[in-house]
Amino acid sequence: MLKDKRYKLEKAINHLEYELNQIDDSELRMLIRYRYEDNLNYVQIAHRMNDYGEKIYSDDSVRMKLNRFFEISTSPLKHIFSRLGTLAIISLTLVIN
């Protein structure tokens, strides 16, 4: 029983990783990972992103970019994250690791 649940969780995480890697915009992939894998807030994400490049990020710009992606996206990630939510994604990751 536990092995079956673990298998299903691993499969779900693999599916999330696959869908995330289908996003062409590497900046957006980083934002999603910081938000949903690392559970960072928008201010923390902005600070991390500002360490990487020339572009200046604010918490509002991070929030808006993520919101825009989920509003207009046809990616299955939109539906996965909207159904599961942040806490479920973190829980899945913690259980597997």
Main beta-sheet annotation:
none
Instruction: Output the radius of gyration.
Output: 14 Å
Structure class: mainly alpha
| Average of per-residue pLDDT values | 79
Sequence stretches where pLDDT stays below 50 over 5 or more residues? none
Oligomer: single chain
Q: Quick one: how many beta strands?
A: 0
With helices defined by DSSP (H or I, 4 residues minimum), what is the helix count? 5
Strand portion, in percent? Answer: under 5%
Shape: elongated
Model description:
The protein has 97 residues and is mainly alpha-helical. The chain is built from five helices and no strands. Helix content is 78%, strand content 0%. The mean pLDDT is 79.
List keywords for this structure.
97 residues; mainly alpha; 5 helices
List the helices and strands and how they pair.
Layout: H1 2-21, H2 26-37, H3 42-50, H4 59-72, H5 76-96
Helix pairs in contact: 1-5, 3-4
What does this entry show, briefly?
The protein is mainly α. The protein has five helices and no strands. It starts with a helix and ends with a helix.
